[in-house]
Design a protein that fits this description.
Layout (H helix, E strand, L loop, with lengths): L5 E4 L4 E2 L10 E2 L4 E7 L2 E2 L2 E2 L6 E5 L3 E5 L4 E3 L3
């Protein structure tokens, strides 16, 4: 996976920071977005992030996810 890839969330991932659902759980399963960063280093040093894929979704939502929670959308 690389920056710019369109993705779909394939597993149930509950978040609590969705702008339209503040304070209540929101399941990202089935949502589509775009990879905006793959976190492999911080301040020039390598890191092993638990959730290295930074994804931008519609409605001003961003989330960090694992690669096994996503699939690339073709086309």
């Amino acid at each position: 996976m690389k920056v710019g890839d369109r993705i779909r969330v394939t597993q149930s991932v509950i978040i609590y920071h969705h702008p339209a659902h503040k304070g209540e759980g929101f399941d990202l399963k089935g949502q589509e977005g775009e990879i905006i960063a793959v976190v492999t280093e911080w301040q020039g040093r390598p890191v092993s992030a638990n959730f290295p894929i930074h994804v931008k979704f519609p409605e001003r939502l961003k989330a960090h996810l694992r690669e096994d929670e996503l699939e690339i959308i073709e086309g």
